[in-house]
């Protein structure tokens, strides 16, 4: 009976491809939009993932997310270092500064200043140059996306002529202070979509406008056998600052963007639209397919097939269409993600998303099959043969 059910499904090619198209398109929309949403949100805490050395991130208690810089006084670093159980504590500067480019243009850049002594927080992957080069005078690193897009420079003396990426040896100005590009780094895309510049903490403070508070974040490493939760509470009680584990800081950042922006609503509507498209196209096509084949179900019922066997046939048809549609939709989503460069589109296909899409397809198929099954259960062979 299962083989007959599949032959009935594949034999009506017009309706079969219609059902398949609906389920594939629904899976593509649901998974693709969800993957873009996850990719976009993961960019909001890219800096935290780029700095795995720290066990705790200590900040001003009013800070809402990682890019929300609330500078602290430099003395906060000494207060944190005095807390028992800390192996080391490093300063970090983070702020937006305007860079004057060699061609006279100006560009807002995200400047990150890492500890002068240990260079904790410096980029892990260098395309050109070495991390140790940061210790040279007036040196900065830029990341590849900024070098290849926003910081392009004229390739010839003609400013309107062809452009080339910014490269090692170029000189720009930050707050009218000279900065020499000594390295090109590969980093994760950030949510702000501006070039990121890495330099040392003291040099970054020198680039920034004068301010009594210059310390953006304190990175803390706990002693090997130290209880991290206890250390976190001690830092907060003894310094009055906030201390977060990397996971907590990432969630705090994510929570801010989820609650304070309309991004989740926009993507949620697209995902719901994909679900409704699946229901409208695949559901209706599957229901019509069953109605068109009621006479065959009636004939089989008249020849002795039980209602259970007929229901099993409908279930097999729904399962086959669902598996094929889900597989094609996930495959199309994966191809889409591979075809679009990561720096142009935030796309992150985690293992959760295929499961969510599978659940959505199951709901669509169950809904369509449920209506079809109801018609089969109530089917009277006399009605079929009487026309």
What would the keywords be for this entry?
13 helices; 18% strand; 387 residues; six-stranded mixed β-barrel; alpha+beta; two-stranded antiparallel ribbon; elongated
Outline the fold blueprint.
Blueprint lengths: L1 H10 L1 H31 L2 H5 L5 E4 L15 H7 L4 E15 L5 E9 L10 E4 L10 E5 H5 L4 E2 L8 E2 L6 E4 L2 E10 L9 E5 H7 L9 E6 L5 H12 L2 E3 L1 H15 L2 H30 L1 H9 L4 H33 L12 H26 L3 H5 L2
Parallel strand pairs: 3-10, 5-9
Antiparallel strand pairs: 1-11, 1-12, 2-3, 2-8, 2-11, 4-9, 5-10, 6-7, 8-9
Instruction: Give the overall form.
Output: elongated
Number of DSSP E strands: 12
**What's the story with the biggest beta sheet?**
6 strands, mixed, barrel
Question: How do the strands of the widest beta sheet line up side by side?
Answer: 2-3-10-5-9-8
Mean pLDDT: 88
Rg, Å, rounded? 30 Å
| Helix share bin | 40-55%
Low-confidence region ranges: none
Count the helices. How many? Answer: 13
Provide the structure class.
Answer: alpha+beta
Ends apart, CA distance between termini: 24 Å
Helix and strand run: HHHEHEEEEHEEEEEHEHEHHHHHH
Percent strand? 15-25%
Summarize the structure.
The protein has 387 residues and is α+β, with helices and mostly antiparallel strands. Helix content is 50%, strand content 18%. The chain has helices spanning 2-11, 13-43, 46-50, 75-81, 144-148, 201-207, 228-239, 246-260, 263-292, 294-302, 307-339, 352-377, 381-385; strands at 56-59, 86-100, 106-114, 125-128, 139-143, 153-154, 163-164, 171-174, 177-186, 196-200, 217-222, 242-244.
């Amino acid at each position: 009976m299962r083989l007959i059910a599949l032959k009935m499904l594949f034999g009506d090619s017009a309706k079969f491809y219609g059902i398949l198209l609906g389920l594939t398109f629904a899976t593509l929309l649901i998974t693709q939009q969800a993957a873009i949403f996850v990719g976009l949100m993961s960019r909001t805490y890219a800096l935290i993932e780029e700095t795995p050395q720290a066990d705790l991130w200590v900040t001003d208690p009013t800070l809402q997310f990682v890019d929300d810089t609330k500078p602290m006084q430099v003395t906060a670093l000494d207060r944190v270092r005095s807390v028992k159980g800390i192996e080391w504590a490093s300063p970090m500067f983070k702020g937006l500064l305007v860079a004057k480019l060699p061609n006279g243009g100006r560009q807002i850049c995200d400047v990150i200043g890492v500890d002068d002594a240990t260079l904790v927080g410096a980029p892990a992957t260098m395309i050109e140059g070495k991390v140790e080069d940061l210790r040279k005078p007036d040196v900065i690193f830029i990341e590849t996306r900024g070098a290849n897009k926003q910081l392009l420079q004229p390739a010839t003396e003609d400013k309107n002529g062809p452009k080339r990426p910014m490269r090692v040896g170029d000189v720009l100005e930050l707050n009218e202070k000279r900065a020499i590009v000594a390295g090109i780094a590969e980093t994760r895309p950030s949510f702000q979509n501006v070039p990121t510049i890495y330099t040392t903490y003291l040099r970054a403070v020198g680039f920034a406008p004068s301010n009594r508070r210059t310390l953006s974040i304190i990175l803390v490493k706990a002693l090997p056998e130290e209880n991290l939760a206890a250390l976190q509470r001690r830092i907060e009680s003894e310094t009055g600052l906030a201390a977060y584990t990397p996971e907590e800081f990432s969630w705090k950042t994510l929570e801010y963007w989820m609650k304070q922006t309309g991004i989740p609503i926009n993507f949620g509507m697209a995902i719901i639209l994909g679900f409704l498209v699946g229901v409208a196209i695949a559901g209706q096509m599957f229901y019509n397919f069953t109605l068109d084949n009621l006479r065959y179900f009636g004939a089989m019922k008249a020849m002795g097939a039980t209602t259970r066997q007929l229901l099993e046939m409908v279930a097999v048809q729904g399962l086959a269409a669902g598996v094929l549609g889900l597989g094609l939709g996930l495959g199309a989503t994966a191809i889409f993600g591979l075809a679009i460069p990561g720096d142009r589109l935030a796309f992150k296909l985690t293992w959760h998303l295929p499961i969510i899409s599978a659940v959505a397809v199951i709901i669509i198929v169950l809904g369509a099959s449920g209506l079809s099954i109801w018609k089969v259960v109530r089917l009277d062979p006399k009605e079929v043969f009487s026309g």
